[in-house]
Amino acid sequence: MINNITIYTDGSCLGNPGPGGYGVIILKNNEIIKLSGGEKETTNNRMEMTAIIEALKYLHENKLSSNDIEIISDSDLIISTLTKNWKKKANTDLWAEIEKLSAWLKIKWIWVKAHHLDKFNIMADKLANSSAQKFKKSS
Fold it and tell me: How many domains does the chain have?
């Protein structure tokens, strides 16, 4: 078991809908793991949620667990939905996936102001934007 795992997630969309990308930074021990990807036609909310899903899949696939997992996002909608039981009105497929993948983990969900003085949030944003740009070029 790892002492703590901190995950930063972000999503980006060029147009809404439009080409989109996600970025994930996973900090464990002294290691930084970067994940990114995207879709040709999506929305910003879907990419924000996909970033969280991809982070959780990574934990699952690598059998990583910790008593101290933080997932940090600049999406107030996502963090508030997960921490304040807001209704899940759209993207119910992604909400179900997040619930399924996070059920076995004890996660502290944290909101951070977008792209504001947090180097790992900025790093996740750059990955998301870079991925969105790749999907824009391939359209």
Answer: 1
